[in-house]
Design goal:
Chain lengths: 409, 150
Amino acid sequence: MTDLSRLRSDFPVLARKVNGKPLIYLDSAATTQKPVQVLDAMDTFYRQHNSNVHRGGHSLAVEATDLYEGARAKIAKFINAASPGEVVFTRGTTNGINTIAYGWALYRLGEGDRILLTSMEHHANMVPWQLVTRHTGAELVYLPFTDGYLVDTSRLDEVLDERVKIVAISGMSNVLGTIGPVTEVAAAARTVGALVVVDAAQRVPHIPTDVQKMDIDFLAFGAHKMLGPTGVGALWGRPERLEEMEPAEGGGEMIRDVHLYESTWAEVPQKFEAGTPPIAEAIGFGAAVDYLSAVGMETVRQHEMDVAGYALERLSEIPDLTVYGPIDLKQRGGVISFTLADIHPHDLATILDDHGIAVRAGHHCARPLHRVLDIPATARASFYIYNIREEVDTLVDALQEARRLFGVA
Amino acid sequence: MSLEEMYRQVILDHYRNPRHSGRLEHPDAHAEGDNPLCGDEISLDVAVDGDVVGDIRIIGKGCSISQASASMMAEAVVGKSIGEIRELAHRFKVMLEIEEGDAGIDPERPGAVLGDLEALQGVRRFPVRIKCADLPWVTLAEALDGLAPQ
């Protein structure tokens, strides 16, 4: 068992009370809390170095550019990219996937082509591809999941053939916690020559990631789900894919030269970074990566398996509680979605909030998944490095209180 | 105000045994409402006789507050004129602090003015849930607004 409780004092918000109770933050799958190291990095940038990047010859501009590009290098190292140039700053995971949809798919797909997704995807890895089908006439096909909440790779041959040009798969489900079978799906995709896109919003923050060991083309993730600020993310791309991809947005920063009727593009990755980027946020992202690197991603993973395992064990003591997701910790992360008797998830969220416990209730941006499960909503507790077993105990007590309030026998 | 006061027995009873549940074969008015943020849904049929709501049927899904509120509303409005219903809606919204005014509720005589609806008073201490309680009333107002002028 890994003890990371010493880290809790780095997170100022964990010291506050909610409804008179110590905050128990179990909504990290929505966004994580931020350590002082990240807050300080952004604050220092604005107080000491604030300037635009990649332009201007003055000292602050050079410092800002060095900090911004330094953050890119840290993020590249964090996912073991071969070069910082393979990492594009985005506004987040959603923006990263849209960049591929509008920069690659839109130019290369047409009638008769297919995009393969799984039915457990977040809307962010579904709707951009729907938009692509509207423009191109390509169609979507889906890989279902099993009764055990695992992506059903045994049915790959039913949906994967030469018509599939893109396979876009979640690295970890934000509802079920299921770790996506990226290696297996990517290997299959290669046999038909399809591009592989990984929605890694819930994966990079929780599992050691090495893009050189993954035979994929794109990996999109965001800073705010891994201790960083909102508004910035990263898109890793295989160099040849980034070269052939068109920019989804035009403007300043992304050009080499501009004429009245045509322009040429800057080199990758600037080609994809139109306009002034979120500079302070990118620097905060770099600080978040430093923080996670210092803890060690293997340790992060071990800690989450410990807390999630303990939570699954304790939740199983509560009658009428159903968990939606794999039971085997090797197949899942620290996201636990559940329902309790006939108590609606929003009522559960209100009751838990009264105990200072933050969980999310609803469809978690995965309505198609909830339709497959045939439930309108779930309550979701999600864990990160700052959560401890004692918080799970309080959660369980509060859920027992919910049963009592609702008179569930 | 505590959780016990929000989740009163009468609310849970309406949640689990919704009154006026179902559809009307020939409704004079129909409206659907939803709260996209939390997924609460209300679909409601109204039959009017002159100026009076003769019957109402509701199909809904969602949290206990939205569904209990719908059930209580249905009981409260059947047999009342549209004018009386608008007045009742106003009092209900005042009770939840959605609108300004005097709900006319007598603390000495609980339930005397708004009936079971008064049980929803506790919701006003939970701001994110007020929309749940109000959804059926918003939906009913839309249905009544859609009626041909009498």
